[in-house]
């Protein structure tokens, strides 16, 4: 949603500028196409085409068929307090028992891992990301060549920060499928990915249509390389149905669409949406396939629309006013959930800190091309905020930073109200939104909740067991209980007392496999 974009051409949900492709002259285009094709052929037909993807070759996952984690406190994802001195038995990737610390002698055939008093939690879940976004706005040959490496970095930063499952709500199908498979096979470190593949967006009209001005490729080589488009842009109901069928056939586990009446500005321009009939067609296709539907709705009108039509999840928080009680009550009655994505909506207020983050961690999180482009973007955003814009300038922007900054109080008030009324408010970051939503920033979303006075234990329950229920995986992940997948993280300190404990995750286990094990002895 409304990112840190500072200019008219900026995308909302994807880091490429339509103009980049459109403006590419014919020669450059042919060269690019040839390079892409050559890379694909060199890859032996596999889509993993660039040698730079060897990024993670030094990484070796460690697994033991039977192990016991001991000397730890436990936040099980459900109870609101830490359980002291516990022991977790893991067999074949699953949690077999959670017990008070007992005699380790009974586990002589097990690998025993001393967690040194750390706190063990369920792997964190991020219910709104764009994990294949390359953080690139200006499309150059170098940028294209670095794209896969950036995606590997996204997967890496995400899981190393303790996020073991993400729901991806928009990306290039081929990239999602390719890298998800690599992460599932532990060829690269990465989270479990549940994906909608391409969102079913409305067609771009004269006005920029959400998601921003993300390009719609018609070139068959590029489409083949990316597996389609960042967003599908059907118009007629039959086209909408066809796009849904295509995503479902490709393996979409969710359907995502968007509703946004206007740009983020005090002088808003209208944006295209589907008709109610179109939205109903998406919901019907989801029902038919047994999958749920998400609606991007950063404005109050979108929240109402999502509730009226019966979407399953709403994405982002209405920023242009207060959500009426009656709509929240109906939302709750229908068993809906919302991912507020306060990180993406609040980043406009912290551009200086973001520039510092890029300076200190940029190289770790981004490939060179992305780092350069994102840094330029944040500087542009900051510059835009520091001067008074004319009405014409404001009208021309798809995203007016001062408007979004001023609206953030509405976002906070709405999240507070939803939580107070007992709504299912999950945790989603919109990381992958192209400006500054860098993977690894998950704790920032938790801090936004804490700033509203919500207790840490409740926030962490949302981040784990509630998020798992929202994506219908509560029987497999989101809690430390017998029978669940061994998706576990360990941190020093007590995150229930201080969320900063999550800024540094020492141990990450996904399905019983150690993705990361810093400061603990294995083997
Ligand atoms: Zn998003």
Keywords:
TIM Barrel; 16 helices; binds zinc ion; eight-stranded mixed β-sheet; 523 residues; alpha/beta; Urease, subunit C, domain 1; disordered N terminus
How would you describe the overall organization of this protein?
Helices cover 38% and strands 17% of the residues. With 523 residues, it is an alpha/beta fold. It folds into two domains: 18-57 and 125-470, TIM Barrel; 62-122 and 480-517, Urease, subunit C, domain 1. Zinc ion (ZN) binds at residues 1, 13, 128, 130, 169-170, 430, 433.
Q: List the uncertain runs.
A: 1-56
As for the CATH topology of the largest domain, it is TIM Barrel
Global structural class:
alpha/beta
How is the main sheet built? 8 strands, mixed
Sheet with most strands: strand arrangement:
1-16-15-14-5-2-3-4
CATH architecture of the largest domain: Alpha-Beta Barrel
N-to-C terminal Cα separation, in Å? Answer: 45 Å
Number of helices: 16
Count of extended strands: 16
**Domains counted in the coordinates: how many?**
2
Our Rg estimate from Cα atoms comes to 22 Å
- Global shape: globular
CATH superfamily of the largest domain: Metal-dependent hydrolases
CATH classification, class level of the largest domain: Alpha Beta
